[in-house]
């Protein structure tokens, strides 16, 4: 039985690493080290040790090792989260102590091509979801061995192949919690950390002029209130301007217990149209074959995506809108006859359901000490 550390921080990164951590637990001793939003997400007590780190410095973790309170892992696994965090900053520390390191990514050109560069943060192996993600990575990490890049698919999406995502079951749950929820088209808006209010305002302007009423479901990013407090009032103002249907605030739904909460993934499953700026929920919507619209105004695109651009535009799995007129046109088409995205969604968002197992195999090869051979698992 090997010792493994699994590090997570942001919601997306946690979603990518947590299934791997759970599967590894069946055969190994896994220590989950969490910080940031991941601490709140991990609310189900697993049957193995967890260590929560809030604002700890990576050196604090090593101090626990040096004082005998923790054993070094045989393999170190981390998500690729914005700002790096404990996971990224421990990579060079692990390398210096001879511990193999694995990064599991959750977005095509995410933190791995921004924060995890320079080379001191490069791991022994990195798991990416497809050829496009690998292409972005190799452009960013000049000199990184291609054999260390493994196309595994995305562990976070394995569960979409399960019976958990039954549309009729979820709809019944929604109507139990929201008796006034209508049998009309549903548009789900996934907010992000910064700039969501302008996108939401543009969406509402477009929906107010479509011929038929709709359910508009709004989901804020978990850190929206603390990261972008200046957007709270404009967000509320934009919501008050909606007058063509039924408005649902997911954060205000009254629940008897946390287990009743309808996840963002489940909202996507029952929606007809999914709208965001560049959220990974647009990938979720692609897996569920939904009409996908990205509202990506130029300043947001430059700030958040830079030279990499929007992956969904590269893959042609979402319609990208950079002006208010384009938003209005896309929403009209999405609700009327569709955006013609399904063929590419089927091509790029297949559901083999075993991406987690592929990542676990790579971790176990490192435990065994054998050479890693670059494999394209998809």
UniProtKB/TrEMBL annotation:
Highest rank taxon of the organism: Bacteria
Its recorded name reads UDP-N-acetylglucosamine 2-epimerase domain-containing protein
Its taxonomic placement starts with: Bacteria, Candidatus Spechtiibacteriota
């Amino acid at each position: 039985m090997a010792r493994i550390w699994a590090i997570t921080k942001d919601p997306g990164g946690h979603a990518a690493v947590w299934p791997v951590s759970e599967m590894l637990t069946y055969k190994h001793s896994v220590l989950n080290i969490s910080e940031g939003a991941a601490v709140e997400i991990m609310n189900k007590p697993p049957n193995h040790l967890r260590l929560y780190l809030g604002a700890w410095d990576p050196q604090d973790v090593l101090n626990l090792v040096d004082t005998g309170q923790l054993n070094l892992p045989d393999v170190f696994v981390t998500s690729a989260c914005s700002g790096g965090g404990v996971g990224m900053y421990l990579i060079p520390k692990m390398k210096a102590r001879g511990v193999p390191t694995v990064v599991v990514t959750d977005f095509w050109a995410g933190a791995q091509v921004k924060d995890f560069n320079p080379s001191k943060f490069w791991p022994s192996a990195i798991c990416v979801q497809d050829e496009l993600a690998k292409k972005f990575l190799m452009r960013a990490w000049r000199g990184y061995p291609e054999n260390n890049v493994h196309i595994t698919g995305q562990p976070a999406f394995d569960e979409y192949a399960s019976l958990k995502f039954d549309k009729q079951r979820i709809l019944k749950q929604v109507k139990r919690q929201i008796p006034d929820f209508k049998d009309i088209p549903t548009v789900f808006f996934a907010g992000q950390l910064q700039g969501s209010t302008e996108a939401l305002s543009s969406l509402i302007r477009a929906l107010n002029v479509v011929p038929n009423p709709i359910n508009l479901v709004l989901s804020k990013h978990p850190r929206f209130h603390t990261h972008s407090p200046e957007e709270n009032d404009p967000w509320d103002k934009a919501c008050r301007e909606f007058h063509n249907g039924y408005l649902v605030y997911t954060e205000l739904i009254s629940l008897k217990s946390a287990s009743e909460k309808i996840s963002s993934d489940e909202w996507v499953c029952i929606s007809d149209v999914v709208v965001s700026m560049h959220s990974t929920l647009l990938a979720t919507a692609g897996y569920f074959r939904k009409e996908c619209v990205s509202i990506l105004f130029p300043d947001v695109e430059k700030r958040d995506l830079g030279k990499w651009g929007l992956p969904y535009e590269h893959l042609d799995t979402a319609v990208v809108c950079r002006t208010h007129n384009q938003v209005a046109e896309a929403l009209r088409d999405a609700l009327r006859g569709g955006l013609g995205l399904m063929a590419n969604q089927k091509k790029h968002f297949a559901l083999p359901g075993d991406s987690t197992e592929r990542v676990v195999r790579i971790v176990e090869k490192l435990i065994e000490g054998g050479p890693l051979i670059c494999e394209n698992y998809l």
